[in-house]
Amino acid sequence: MIRAENIKKSFGEQEVLKGISTIFEAGKTNLLIGRSGAGKTVFLKLLVGLLEPTSGSVWYDDINFTALNLKQKKEIRMQIGMLFQGSALFDSMTVEENIRFPLDMFTNMTKKEKLDRVNLCLERVDLDGTNAKYPSEVSGGMQKRVGIARAIVQSPKYLFCDEPNSGLDPKTSIVIDELIRDITHENNITTVINTHDMNSVMEIGENIALLYEGNLSWQGNKGEVLESDNELLQDFIFASPFLQRLRSRALGN
Predict the structure, then answer these.
(1) Does residue 68 share a domain with residue 8?
(2) Is 25 within a domain?
(3) How far, in Å, are 20, 42, 115, 200 from residue 55 at the CA level?
(4) What's the pLDDT at 240?
(5) Among positive and negative, which fits the CA dihedral 106, 112, 113, 117?
(6) Across the strands, what pairs with 29?
(7) Is 73 in the same domain as 189?
(8) Section 208-224 average pLDDT
(9) Closest C-alpha among 167, 238, 210, 215 to residue 31
(10) What angle do CA 226, 229, 230 make, to 5 degrees?
(11) I need a labelling partner for 47 at 20 to 30 A (CA). Which of 3, 203, 207, 252 fits?
């Protein structure tokens, strides 16, 4: 579990986050949604410690992450996996080397132990046998799966995904969503996903937090989205005529 308590963040005189308190639950896909400029990326960076809050605190289970020193924060970060928007793979490294990179950097595992762990993760994301390929030799969807394999190679307790479906076609996006959801459930990971993808919201949104102009404007699950009378949520989710018709049918209108 990750808990944010009254998180505020200002850059100079600009207040980006205005006092956000929320909980991201273990074993669930926790989605951060909102328009561009709502503060999602800043909030995500605060959660992982890339930025410090102006005030407020971030808790990892019962540990006040914000109050830790750099060495103590590193110990928590060892339990964090990151899936970046552009996959952020090293072009000069093979798939195997990319996935093994965190193990090389942060563990004392033997070469065989590392290879076994890499192969296990490749199998989990359905990329068996791609060890020797380079990122340029695989599709965008496969690159995302390599990114997921790298993110889980250290068996993290916490997983952060920044726009995991960016640049992917709808069918591949569904595959990535289902993979993240299944890995989250299987390993009881606290997963936080920053997304604009409405399919993700409606398919895997087990805990959804809507940010608007630096505030937490709504929180609920995918089943509550269609029934909510929150105007900010409706304006964001049902921006397209197709989704408006979907909501109307669901409500029997």
Answers:
(1) yes
(2) yes
(3) 10, 14, 43, 31
(4) 53
(5) positive
(6) 191
(7) yes
(8) 94
(9) 210
(10) 105
(11) 203
Tokens coding 8: 């505020």
Measured distance between the N- and C-terminal CA atoms of the chain, rounded to whole angstroms: 38
Strands 158-162 and 80-83: parallel
Three-state SS letters, the chain: CEEEEEEEEEECCEEEEEEEEEEECCCEEEEEECCCCCCHHHHHHHHHCCCCCCEEEEEECCEEHHHCCHHHHHHHHCCEEEECCCCCCCCCCCHHHHHHHHHHHHCCCCHHHHHHHHHHHHHHCCCCCCCCCCHHHCCHHHHHHHHHHHHHCCCCCEEEEECCCCCCCHHHHHHHHHHHHHHHHHHCCEEEEECCCHHHHHHHCCEEEEEECCEEEEEECHHHHCCCCCHHHHHHHCCCHHHHHHHHHHCCC
| Cα-only R_g, the chain | 19
- What are the tens digits of pLDDT across the range 130-151? 999 999 999 999 999 999 999 9
Q: What's the CA gap between 88 and 146, in Å, rounded?
A: 10
In this structure, the number of other CB atoms found within 10 A of the CB of residue 177 comes to: 24
Q: Cα(28)–Cα(182) distance, rounded to whole angstroms?
A: 10
Structural domains counted in the chain: 2
Q: What is the pTM of this model?
A: 0.89
Domain end position, chosen among 137, 155, 173: 155
Taking residue 131's Cβ as centre, other Cβ atoms within 10 Å add up to 16
Opening angle at CA 124, ends 111 and 128, nearest 5: 70
Domain boundaries, position 194:
2-79+157-250
CA 243 to chain centre: 24
Are 174 and 233 found together in one domain? yes
Up-side HSE of residue 227: CA atoms within 13 Å toward CB?
A: 5
